[in-house]
Specification:
Elements lengths: L2 H9 L1 E6 L9 H11 L7 E4 L11 E4 L2 E3 L12 E4 L3 E3 L4 H4 L2 H9 L3 E3 L2 H9 L4 E3 L21 E4 L8 H4 L3 H10 L7 H9 L2 H6 L1 E3 L10 H16 L3 E4 L2 H10 L3 E5 L4 H4 L10 E5 L6 E3 L20 H15 L1
Parallel strand pairs: 1-2, 1-3, 3-5, 4-6, 7-8, 9-10, 9-11, 11-12, 12-13
Antiparallel strand pairs: 13-14
Length: 333
């Protein structure tokens, strides 16, 4: 490495995304996505809030723009100080009409091609004349947290299965939420999730499996604590015997970690299904009908999932993970 190349590395700033909390909960999976970007950075000079990219003014800073964008719909475009790499970029169908304004389209075209986390995002960007391609999720590259199989224990983690179903933390969050849940009927469906669990998970698993919540309460933890939580769950999953989850940012890292994972798909809204386009094919999966609880597995499941259920990950993620690694390394270099 020449002196000039070293000087460029030393003086360039690097950023990592953080996330604004909603009023009730935050998603540890967001921080897992940031850790996926961090592993490619020589250093982290600034934590940059995803919702405040337009006001960033701390000098030229390289930023990997992976993840779900965004709650700041009308002024989401990053400032000129941000040098972006668009990989694993997701634009939800609810956000697209606002983000793809004349200004938003011009910004994305200036930084094309845009690497997208899902095929839905590829489609809506191409419809606006933006060069886009499918990369999958950057969390598929988290094999830096992988451990030797000799460190793998007997823990089976059940991580937020069917979290889209009604649950008491959200139904009874406050008075308004309770009234709203009574009016729309969700308050009377709190047993539905556990009833459906019993259709495809046996009693021993429900008793001995370790339940994990990736959506803790808001206004409780610092950014430092959130990233520590994200590292903690990755270290747990790396040593697990089996992981069962409805969180893509649990299931996708498990593929990278070599941990057997079963994805429980009980989603029935387009808001959810659009972000899975091209991702669900990577998993051993149990598809659950959220109305009836009937289920179907895309792998050989003899009866119900139990503590001794054995599955082998499909290995399809490597064709996505390897190019992602090279793209990020080239961006930093």
């Amino acid at each position: 490495m020449s002196y000039i190349e070293k000087l460029d590395i030393d003086t360039m700033k690097y950023g990592m995304l953080t996330y604004a909390e909603n009023a009730r909960f935050f998603n540890v999976g967001d921080n897992v996505q940031s850790l996926a970007a961090k592993q490619f950075l020589p250093k982290v000079d600034h934590l940059i809030n995803r919702e405040k990219l337009g006001s960033y003014n701390k000098g030229e800073t390289k930023l990997i723009m992976n993840g779900w964008f965004t709650h700041n719909l009308k002024d989401w475009t990053p400032s000129d100080d941000i040098i972006p790499l668009f990989v694993s970029f997701h634009m939800n169908n609810t956000a697209a009409p606002y983000m793809l304004s004349e200004k938003g389209i011009a910004y994305l075209k200036a930084h094309e091609p845009i690497g997208c986390r899902d095929k839905f995002t590829v489609k809506i960007l191409k419809e606006k004349g933006i060069d886009a391609y499918f990369t999958g999720c950057l969390t598929l590259t988290l094999d830096s947290y992988k451990v030797d199989d000799s460190e793998r224990g007997d823990d089976v983690y059940i991580v937020d299965p069917l979290y889209n179903y009604p649950r008491k933390e959200k139904v009874f969050y406050d008075f308004k939420a309770t009234i709203r849940s009574i009016m729309n009927g969700k308050a009377f469906q709190l047993n539905k999730k556990f009833k459906h669990f019993k259709n495809f998970m046996d009693e021993e698993l429900l008793e001995k499996g370790k339940f994990v919540n990736q959506e803790p309460p808001s206004n409780t933890y610092s950014d430092e604590e959130k990233f520590a939580m994200a590292e903690e769950v990755l270290n747990k999953y790396a040593r697990a015997k089996l992981v069962i989850t409805s969180r893509i940012h649990c299931a996708l890292p498990c593929l990278a970690l070599g941990t057997p994972v079963i994805f429980i798909n009980g989603f029935d809204s387009f808001v959810d299904s659009c972000r899975f386009d091209g991702i669900l094919e990577l998993f051993n999966r149990v598809d659950v009908n959220p109305k009836t609880g009937e289920f179907k597995a895309n792998f050989d499941l003899n009866g119900k999932i139990g503590v001794n259920t054995k599955v082998a990950n499909l290995g399809l993620h490597h064709t996505l993970a390897d190019p992602l690694k090279e793209k990020c390394k080239a961006f930093i270099k």
